[in-house]
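User: Can you model how 2-phosphoglycolic acid sits in this protein?
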Amino acid sequence: MRKKIIAGNWKMNKTVADALALANGIKGELSGCGCCSCSCPEVVVCPPFTALKTVGDALAGSKVQLGCQNMSSEDDGAYTGEISHTMLRELGVQYVILGHSERREYYKETDFWVNKKVKKALEKNLRPIVCVGEKLADREAGNTEKVVEEQVRGSLAGITAEQFENVVVAYEPVWAIGTGKTATSEQAQEVHAFIRGIIRDMVGEKAAQGLRIQYGGSMKASNAKELLAQPDIDGGLIGGAALEVRSFIDIVKAAV
Ligand code: PGA
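Assistant: Here's the modeled complex, given as structure tokens:
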């Protein structure tokens, strides 16, 4: 059984004070559950860099884990504006979202760079959440599988079966992100199963079965249960609905 994982991607939202309030709200809602081996999902929040320290301190010792939204592929040095794995680990970061479609689209991140970052993260004991997904034009042209396969193989090239234990993949159809349009549970399941098949081909059955694949793209409380009931959907990467305690917690509850 794969443990479900619900992650909130706060994107470029929340001042430090607002981030702290949101983190404390989420932590408070989840503190009632004293379990650790039950069917509760793993919960991760990914605030902007500026709020990582404050949110990390607030969440220390709680069930909520700390993630971030990007990372440099380099160790240190003259890379203006970049943030390294050492700096992130120092703040208690455990997960790092890599290759989000907004980074691919607006900052021209290619599979080559995503792959470099994934390798660096794994080498430095950070768990990458690796995003893939087709654009609307790809889907309409019947190219969903082609595009997703290229991203999966390119972003995850050279990752060993053993390293895959620390990888999460997020399937996020670009046309569903922030648009209110969700992929139907059938559409999402189809691509999730397809991705698992590619991983099987890359590193074998065991690693493929162990890999958690999140769905992302307008996931909310009202559609989460059905999406999360699909056999190959192992969690969610949540944007808009992760910005308020209630809507995020309702999704976490749908994953139980
Ligand atoms: P959304 O974003 O939930 O607002 O669609 C998801 C994401 O981009 O990770």
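A couple of observations from the model: Residues 9, 172, 177-178, 216-219, 237-241 surround 2-phosphoglycolic acid (CB under 6 Å). The chain has a mean pLDDT of 96.
User: Helpful, thanks.
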